[in-house]
Amino acid sequence: MVAAGNAIDKHEQYKRVFAHFDEDGDGKISGSELRRGGGGGRAGELTEEEAEAAVGFSDSDGDGLLDLEDFVRLVEAGEEEERVKDLKEAFKMYAAGAGDGGGVLITPRSLKRMLSRLGMRRSATECGVMIAEFDLDGDGALDFDEFKVMMS
């Protein structure tokens, strides 16, 4: 029941933010409203062309404007983009020193090293077992896609 409450709260937050962007109160957000309404946030950093492209990408009915549902999809796509960026940074930290020639895999050795830096002592065998749970291709290491599954 808590999850449903959180979803309702999040939807209400989206509605409030949407209303902030919807300067003329017509229930739609134009590219220029998206750009101006952002203030100092992400949207405020958009050029007019970028704002229009964002609207065009998310506009489901082809009217050149965002309704609430379009706006929610746009915001959630941005959140997912940020999440993937953060995961890539974390992946690089865990993959560093993996001995794979470029930090493109998390090996038991690189996992052990990173966990040690975080104050968690694990043997290479324990790290291998941890990796095996998410090692979809059976190569004994995690690539970025396997890491994303592990972090979901």
From TrEMBL:
Residues 9-44, 46-81, 122-152 form the EF-hand domain. GO terms for molecular function: calcium ion binding. InterPro entries: EF-hand-dom_pair (IPR011992), EF_Hand_1_Ca_BS (IPR018247), EF_hand_dom (IPR002048), EF_hand_pair_protein_CML-like (IPR039647). The keyword Metal-binding applies. Keywords: Calcium, Metal-binding, Repeat. This is EF-hand domain-containing protein. It comes from Linum tenue. The lineage of its organism: Eukaryota, Viridiplantae, Streptophyta, Embryophyta, Tracheophyta.
